[in-house]
Structure formats: structure tokens, C-alpha cells
Amino acid sequence: MSYDQDNIFAKILRGEIPCNKVYENEHSLAFNDINPQSKVHVLVIPKGSYTDVDDFSRKASKDEIASLMQAVAEVCKITKVSLSEGGSGFRLIANTGTDGSQEVPHFHYHVMGGEPLGLRGLRKN
Ligand code: 5GP
Q1: What is the CA radius of gyration of the chain?
Q2: 93 lines ligand 1 (CB under 6 A)
Q3: What SS3 class is residue 71?
Q4: Looking at the annotation, which residues are catalytic?
Q5: pLDDT tens for residues 78-99?
Q6: By the 8 A CB rule, do 45 and 107 touch?
Q7: Which residue CA neighbors atom 12 of ligand 1 most closely?
Q8: Ligand 1 contact, 35 CB (< 6 A)
Q9: Which of 34, 35, 50, 124 is at 20 to 30 A from 12, Cα to Cα?
Q10: Is residue 53 within 6 Å of ligand 1 at its C-beta?
């Protein structure tokens, strides 16, 4: 799949569309999901143009990969879901492609938590 420069997250990264920023570092941005499915629902994205987690894992530099995982950790700390910070956990999801029900074709992790999730995010209702 080639990268679509007009996807909604590319527009957020270019500042053409606003977002509610939670955290940012050199290679990553995290912001609240516009339609949260749990009390904590943050999207963590690389600033580079990657379509999905597989594309990112294959092509991103070690710095970009480290930066993204550091952003996930910071988001978990900021939102108080991190087990290391006394939180009660979260779910990290990377929907991928058609079978994974990926809507936005720019790689993103969903960090979901703040309440017991059951199977939310894993199965459709
Ligand atoms: P996917 O199904 O691709 O894994 O999830 C895409 C997510 O992006 C959805 O949870 C959806 O609510 C969120 N989303 C779509 N458009 C926007 C937007 O313009 N701003 C924000 N903050 N989130 C969005």
C-alpha cells in the first residue's frame, strides 16, 4: 500500500487539522482520539510517512522506533495507566489493513485504558 499524503493524520502532522496533543517528541506525536472508546484513548503516531505497523517496523530507523515506544511509555505515564506508575493497565492496539479494520492509513497505536476494557477493541459489537 502506498502512503496517502492526504490522510487525516498527515493533515494533523502538517498542522492543517487541530488535535488535542498529549505528548510529542522528535519523531512521534500523541493525541486524544476524536471518538474515544474508553476513558483513556490516545493515538500515538510516528511523524514519518508509514502506512501501518509492519511498514514502520520494516522501514523506520532505530531512532524512530525507539522514539515511538518512548512516546507510548510517556503517554501511559501521563494518563496514569502505566503499571510502573501504580496504574491498572491498558491495551495497546495497532489495527492493520482491511482485516484489521484500519480506517486511517497512517500507522498509529491506540492506547486504551482508564477502566476495565473486557474485550473492547478486540471484537466488534
Ligand atoms: P483505526 O481504525 O484506523 O485503527 O483508528 C482510527 C482512529 O482515528 C479512530 O479511533 C478514530 O476515532 C480516530 N480519528 C479519526 N479521525 C480523527 C481526527 O480527525 N482526529 C482524531 N484525534 N482522531 C481521529
Answers
A1: 14
A2: no
A3: helix
A4: 108
A5: 999 999 999 999 999 999 999 9
A6: yes
A7: 35
A8: yes
A9: 124
A10: no
Q: Is 105 exposed, middle or buried (0-12, 13-18, 19+ CB in 10 A)?
A: buried
User: Given pLDDT bands bounded at 50, 70 and 90, which one contains residue 114?
Assistant: very high
Q: In the chain, where are the structural domains located?
A: 8-113
Give me 99's grid cell: 482485516
Q: Which residues contact 96 (CB under 8 A, 6 or more apart)?
A: 52, 53, 54, 102
Task: Point out the ligand 1 atom lying closest to the alpha carbon of residue 108.
Answer: 4
Q: State the distance from the centre of ligand 1 to the C-alpha of 8, rounded, in angstroms.
A: 8
Q: How far is CA 119 from CA 19, 55, 116, in A?
A: 27, 26, 9
Q: Indicate if ligand 1 lies below 6 Å from the C-beta of 31.
A: yes
Look at the domain 8-113 and name its fold: HIT family, subunit A (3.30.428)
